[in-house]
Structures are given as structure tokens and as C-alpha cells.
Amino acid sequence: MSNVHQIVHPLIQHKMAIVRNVETGPKEFRELVDEIALLMAYEVTRDIVLEDVDVETPMGLAKCQMIAGKKIGVIPILRAGLGMVNGMLRLIPAAKVGHIGVYRDPETLRPVEYYCKLPSDISERDLIVVDPMLATGGSAVAAIRFIKERGGKNIKLMVLIAAPEGIAAVQAAHPDVDIFVAAIDEKLDSRGYIVPGLGDAGDRLFGTK
């Protein structure tokens, strides 16, 4: 089954408390999601392979390590996942960014694909799928399936808040995909929203209703 990694760093937990607050406006909400994504990226990329290199310093030769050339791709699930991309790119500026558009049918709660644009060398990259919320898991399961169908192999999922139901859905459909999360909440309500959650992440990011 997928490994679930809950990241409990104090800075992340502090920012999560503010981002949950109903009084937090779109500007501050966007800034917080960006910052949390950056901080979480440290943990998500912890297993990147390094290689030994010699670096000439002003005082001599230093034995150092650098990333061994493995390429990274960041794949936001539209639209809320866009709020996490810039934070990731500040840490990994050479990453390529793909986009997957999936919306949840309000009646069936099932995912519907409307857009998919991925790097051409996706099979050669370590891929990080990002979305603030893992609720029913339908969108994440579908997005990961689309990536695999196009040749993606080494995939991780990074979310801010997950419901147990969403984690179980991803584990069942994609047991090879590790899940990184800042908080695991209580449950889903009858509409498929995470409780207590933070509301609709897309609406709060972009100031829509």
C-alpha cells in the first residue's frame, strides 16, 4: 500500500492554522499555500539521489554532493493545484510543469477530465502531483491514472489536507504512489467536503464562490 507521510514541522502547522481560518482573505491564503508547498517540498524531495562532485572554493578543493541529474516534474491538478506550483518552483526551479484538469461532478462526485498537458519526457522524471485537498480521492486517482497512461512511473502525491476516505482511495488505486500531507482530518460531509478542512481551496485561492 502507499506510504502516507504526515509532515508535522512547526512552521507548516502554524501556517496551516492560518490558512484554515475563515477570516483569511484570498491574498493571504495564496501566500500561505505557496509557503506551505515550499516547506513540504523539502520532505517530498528528501530521497533525491545525489552524486559526489569536486568544487573549487576560494580556499581549495571541497568534496561535495549535488543532485545526480534526475529530472523532476510538478503536476498540479487544476485549478486549486496551481496555488502550490510557485512554491515548488522556488525550491526546484529546473522542474517542468504539466497540468491536469479534472473537475468533480457535483451530482455523482466522480472526476471528469477536461485537460491534460504533460512534459514530453514524463517517463524520465520524478513526478510530484500537487493539489491542496484530498477529499474523495477521485480527482487524484484519475490524475495519477492519466499520468501513468502517458508513461509516468515514479509518482508522488502532495496535498495540504486529506480525508481518510481520500487516502484509502489513492492507496487502493495506486499502491505505488506515496502520499505527503500536512494534515489528516476527520471525515467527509454529505457533499464530499473535508471536515473541518478549509472550505473550497480553489474558491479561496482565486476569490470565487
Low-confidence stretches: none
The Cα radius of gyration reads 18 Å
Work out the helix count.
6
Q: Beta-sheet strand percentage?
A: 25-35%
**How would you state the average pLDDT, rounded?**
93
Order of helices and strands: EHHEEEHEEEEEHEHEEEH
Category by helix and strand content: alpha/beta
Q: Based on DSSP secondary structure assignment, what is the total number of beta strands? A: 13
Largest sheet: 9 strands, mixed
- The helix content, as a percent range, equals 25-40%
Straight-line N-to-C gap: 36 Å
Q: How would you describe the shape?
A: globular
Q: Any descriptors?
A:
alpha/beta, single chain, about 210 residues, globular, nine-stranded mixed beta sheet, two-stranded antiparallel ribbon
Structure characterization notes:
There is one protein chain. The protein is an alpha/beta fold and 209 residues long. It contains six helices and 13 strands. The protein has helices at residues 10-20, 26-44, 85-91, 138-149, 164-173, 201-206; strands at residues 4-6, 50-57, 60-67, 71-78, 96-97, 99-104, 111-117, 125-130, 133-134, 154-162, 178-184, 187-188, 194-195. β6 and β7 form a beta hairpin. The radius of gyration is 18 Å and the shape is globular.
